[in-house]
Amino acid sequence: MTAVTITVLLLVIGGFIAFAIFLQLKEQARLEKLRKVAALNNQLRQVRRYLDEMPPQYQPKDMKLWLFSRMIALHDQLIALQPDATLTRRRQNLATEMKEFQASKQKRRAKPMNDELAIIEVRRMFESFKSYLILAQKEKNIDADVANRYKKLLDFFHYKVNSDYHSHLARKAFLSGQISDALEKYKEALAQLNPIKDSAEAQATILKLQELIQEIEDDLILQKAEEEVSRDMDTAGEEELDDEWNKFMEESTFQQKKRF
User: Fold this and answer.
1) 108, 146, 185, 234: which sits with the fewest CB atoms below 10 Å from its CB?
2) Please, what is the end-to-end C-alpha distance for the chain in angstroms?
3) CB 217 within 8 A of CB 183
């Protein structure tokens, strides 16, 4: 075998090896791209769930705007990986939705916390969102101070959701005329906030509950006083009737004796 033949064979073998490595690298790149796309789609579903399923009273406006911005950024990353007309259209719709929400002055309607299973699910969502904030902070998608503020809010909401549940039951009892029962449930709503009673986030809610409890207690004292006055008047009225009856009987007896 001549040197030329050996050289040609080595070149052919080297070419095959290089081509095999190229194919392998290309496949790895394709798999890595698919992995990134899958991860981005998972994040999109996760953030969309926070936006749609977290009750409005537990989504401050700036937090919701940040979630919108995350969704838009995730769409941008997906479009960069795999340009798609549908993704582009969704991204535009999201930007419009975010702009309308930012400009809106309409007060968000709170979702009643009237189901214990729903409360458990909402609290799980809070924990999931805290984990997402940690990831976003690690990837530098959120400022550390903002992330810490949101985490404190979520810690507050973790207890407030139970407090809101008891407040809902208390209001229902109050509207049904069960004042004493309403008072006990409002006190329980206040007790649910004990673990975070010193936090700045809880102060407004605690003050509101304390005012409601004081108003009901004052109403109950007034109601009791009115009942006592009414009872005293009834007793006085009965005594007056008894006196008149006795007087009538005495006069009747005297007249009978006189006629006799």
Assistant:
1) 234
2) 168
3) yes
